[in-house]
Specification:
The chain is an alpha+beta fold and about 375 residues long. The chain folds into two domains: about 190 residues, no CATH class; about 150 residues, no CATH class. The chain is about 55% helix and about 20% strand. It has eleven helices and ten strands. The two termini are about 45 Å apart.
Length: about 375
């Protein structure tokens, strides 16, 4: 009988592990996320755009078909194909001043690597004669109809008295600078935080491991409150660039945290030590959350509002996972076979964490 139970646990672990293991263990994004910084200079509007390089290369023929190129080679391809880029963005990134369309030109290109991806950084200039009376409207259609309807672009703009944050999505493609309300700035970042937690399998498994090893709802509330406080601190500090830890250090640590919380109850740690563990790992996860919230001019305290609302979205995502999971656990615990199920789930989560750790550490 015991042998059959062990076999059942073993095959359940393998089934869960191999069903989910093909999923990416890298950056927590399922789309080609982009970033924009908009400002005024002495001659007009400066628009700094960052996009996933390979996604861009699938649409504009840059002579780049896959990864493996050096940053210098990627930068050279961007510079050499400025005319093709200008032709594409003339239709996909349109800027109006007082209702009149402005003609933009690319004045600078370069490449950097973040979130384990190469990003094409393209700076446009749109001439404006009278900056004092500028009334800017932007329509952003990059990628939505080409290859990625889930694409998002996080915008920071600073036109002197007009500052703000925005998120371009397939449903929100138009922005009038300085006209968006506090509510208008809040909703996109709440959605961004909610989406981020639901696509981050490592974060989800971390939460599941904490919930599975908790006996009472009050235990879940205590643990998740502590985790929330910890990741809120580092999310804010990292997004404001008051703390900076490279992703090649943070991402393996997040994976390791998933593996550890899956087995820490079996190690016999007291609740006191468990709280310390959760708090420390919460600090690490907060830095990971901040990776999805890159804001231009992040040291400005006006960035606190999008950080706060993004965190609200993260909390809503976590709450949804707990509300769906904990009643199922309470039901399962009524049966004798609940213990093998818990062991199998925790073992599978441990395997995910260890696998991701070595993938991220060696990448």
């Amino acid at each position: 009988m015991i042998g059959n139970k062990l076999k059942g646990i073993f095959f359940l672990i393998l089934g869960v592990y191999f069903f989910i293991s093909p999923l990416s263990a890298s950056a927590h994004t399922d789309n080609s996320e982009g970033y924009s910084s908009i400002s005024l200079d002495n001659h007009g509007l400066r628009y700094e755009l960052s996009l996933d390089y390979l996604e861009l290369a699938r649409i504009v023929d840059l002579g780049i078909t896959s990864g493996g190129y050096t940053s210098a080679e990627l930068s050279e391809a961007l510079e050499k194909n400025k005319s093709l880029l200008e032709e594409y963005f003339a239709e996909k990134l349109t800027v109006f001043n007082q209702g009149l369309k402005l003609d933009g030109t690319i004045i600078e290109t370069n490449v950097d690597r973040r979130l384990e991806r190469d990003y094409a950084n393209i700076t446009f200039h749109f001439p404006i004669e009278d900056k004092e009376s500028a009334a800017i409207q932007i329509t952003y259609d990059v990628f939505f109809l080409d290859n990625d309807p889930a694409h998002r672009n996080i915008v920071t703009y600073d036109l002197g008295e007009k500052t703000g944050k925005f998120v371009f999505t397939s449903g929100e493609r138009d922005l009038t600078l300085g006209k968006d309300s506090m509510l208008g700035q809040s909703v996109p970042f709440i959605k961004l935080g909610f989406h981020h937690i639901l696509i981050g399998l490592d974060h989800i498994l971390f939460i599941i491991a904490l919930v599975v090893t908790s006996q009472k709802l009050i235990d879940v509330i205590k643990i998740m409150t502590l985790f929330t406080l910890a990741h809120s601190v580092t999310l804010g500090l990292t997004a404001l660039e008051l703390v900076h830890i490279p992703s090649n250090i943070v991402e393996p640590l997040i994976a390791l945290s998933v593996a550890f919380v899956a087995i820490e109850r079996f190690l016999g740690l007291s609740d006191k030590y468990r709280f310390i563990v959760v708090f420390v790992f919460g600090l690490i996860h907060g830095i990971g959350f901040a990776g999805a919230l890159e804001l231009a001019n992040p040291t400005e305290w006006s960035s606190l509002w999008p950080i706060l609302t993004f965190n609200v979205g993260v909390e809503l995502g976590q709450t949804l996972i707990i509300l769906l999971l904990f009643p199922i656990l309470l039901f399962i615990r009524k049966f004798k076979w609940s213990s093998p199920i818990h062991i199998a789930v925790n073992t599978a989560i441990f395997l995910f964490g260890i696998t991701w750790y070595f993938q991220r550490f060696l990448s």
